[in-house]
Specification:
By secondary structure, this protein is α/β, with parallel strands linked by helices. The chain is built from 25 helices and 8 strands. A hairpin with a 5-residue loop joins β4 and β5. This is GB1/RHD3-type G domain-containing protein. Keywords: Coiled coil, GTP-binding, Hydrolase, Membrane, Nucleotide-binding, Signal, Transmembrane, Transmembrane helix.
Amino acid sequence: MKLKNIFLLFFLYILISIISSQPQQQQKQQNFKELFKPVQLIYPDSNHDRLIINESSINLLNSLLNEDRLSVLGVVGTFHSGKSFLLNQLLGTTDSFTVGPTVHPQTIGIWMWACRINDERGKQHNLLLLDTEGFYSSNVSETYDAKIFAITTLLSSHLIYNSVKIIDQSALEYLELLSRRTQLFALKSQIKSNEINQEIIGLNNILNFPSLTWVVQDFFQDIGDETPTQWLNNLLKAHSRDKDIDNSLTSITKIFPSIECHTLFLPSGDRNILRHLDKAKLNDLNPIYIKELNQLKSSLFNDNDIDNNNNNIKSKLTGPSISTLLRLLVEVANGNKFPTVPSIWSGFIKQQQQSALEDSIIAYKDKMSTITIEESYSISKPPLCFKEFEKLENQSNDYATNLYKQLLFGLEEAYKPGQQKLHKLLKENYQYFLKENNFKIQNYCQRIFNEEIDSLQSRLDSIIIPISSKHFNHQISILKNEIISQYKELTKQYDHNENNQNNYYQVYLKTLEKDIERLIDGKQLQNKNKIEILLTKSIDMISERYKSSMNQLELPVTLEQLSSEDKKYYDQLLNVKFKQITEVAHDESYYQPFESMAEKKLHQLFQYFQEINEEKIMEKSKFESEQSILDFKKSVSQIILPVEEEMLVKSMNEFKIRSINSYKNRLEPFKYSKSYTTQLNRLESSLERQIELKLNENVTQMKWIVMESLDTVRVMMISRTPIFWFQHSYENEAYREAEKRIIDKIKSKPLRDKVIKQFINNDLKEQLDSLFKLSTILLTLGIILLFSILISYTIIKK
């Protein structure tokens, strides 16, 4: 009996526990609804530099439409500071965002989680949580951290900055640096949006900073009677006093519209629980931690009201709007350069860098000062060639570079960036001294050029003309080589100057060669004119012989025959006769154009004879076409009408084929001619018209046979005209009456239909026109009446 009572009590205890737990579970389900599970929104490329959008996550985000206005809660902070665990705790879960015990980061890029919760007041919040990759992780640049911070900040309605144990000076400076870079990034995003005409409603407000809550986890410091927010404000004031006035204007308090601070005690004193917080239950956590966590929740969801914080327009965005903003921010972040901000140390570095640059450039100029414009040069003392100049410049450059390195020894931040500036300045000065030296080279080359031109003119005057072009060119070749060789010998050291944009050696060498050619051309002009006259007369002669030979042909001939004759006369006159007459000019540079002119002339004459031949073919084709039409008419005229249409069509098609074949046979040799094809098409069209005329004639003949029956229909339809309103019904009635009366007389339905159609169109035309005219008048009156009613209604309504 006792055992039975004990069992009964145990059963009642289990039942009461189950019943009491159900309201809690229902309350939790009512207060929390997951819209979709955590997914990776942004991930880095293989170099951990560029950001890549996860398109499948974007599709999830786009599914949250107008009815799902979202508040975005983002959390950022250092590597392994408990960001993912904090987000899980804020929503009462333990494993939504990944939490790990190892030293390797669990969150890569940016993850998102959408859910709907009710706060303690029962107000509903549509949340989009952003969990981010921590700062300072291995093999990750500062710029990558800044990109993650900037995108999360500008997407968020409220931002949580998460740190561990304490807030020190370096943490404040790093947050301020990230925030100032984000300000510049927001400005670039605004400019980019304007450039691409991206329509994002209220973009200026969207790119404003959200309110900030700084959460310090594992905090066990004593801050006295101060609240965490007061403690943080005092730290910020002290931070501003340590900075110069200009920088304090852009301190953290000026950037974020409001800042609060919350501290969280250690979640647990048990090492195993701390190592596996993703598996910890609420009962496993420290009561102090739970109390401070609830205060943080109340601040986020009740006191601050995350949906309306600072009238933040970002709390009113839909999923598609957030995805559009995200694409813009990622595009700008992956752009040319992510924004940076200056510092006091960078100013000192720039000052030292500038001083070292100036001293190095002065030293370079002193070494290069041996090159002066005022100094004169002669054949015995020419200017520096490029190799000599390069040797002097390399020595000066090395001296300046070593001096720069010595002046900035130990200042790597100034030395490395300044190297590029030094290189640019040295390059500019190099170009200046190179220009001065080139000026001296130019004067020297010009002097040698003038001396050689005078010598050339004197020796050309001593040549006695006329002589053959070949003999003349032989003498000139020797003279030209002597003059050019003399010039090259005196200026050869200035050749092969690849870096010299104005290679004066080559400039004056080419000018010298051109002047030599100009003088040679003057001597050759008279001889050239006589040769050109010979070439012109030769072209005229072979053209006349070609025409005379081709005129002997009896046209028309086939294209093959015409081409064969052309090839024969072309080879005889151009390749033999013309070349024999103009043999003296074969080696002249202008011979080829005249030969081409002769070829063109013969081609033009061939085209002329082609056109004449085509005209003859056209005449013959036209004659044969007309003859075939006459033959067809003669054959068709022998058919006695009326006959059944099928028989008539068959007979005429046979006559048509016979006529066309007759045309083709008589003009078989010219079947590839355009005239042949044109007349064949004309013949086919004419025969089709003749067939159509014969068919219409057959219909007319057949109509006279049944005219008595059709007259009966005509009288009947005239009497019935008043009962019809529309032409279509009138025609149908006339067709039915006519068909009943002639169906036994005309067996062929196609022929019968054509007879009835001709009868209706011709014999009942007057009735059809009057009937249709009446309906048109009635329709017009109806339309006018309808428009009058609509206009009256519009006036009354206004």
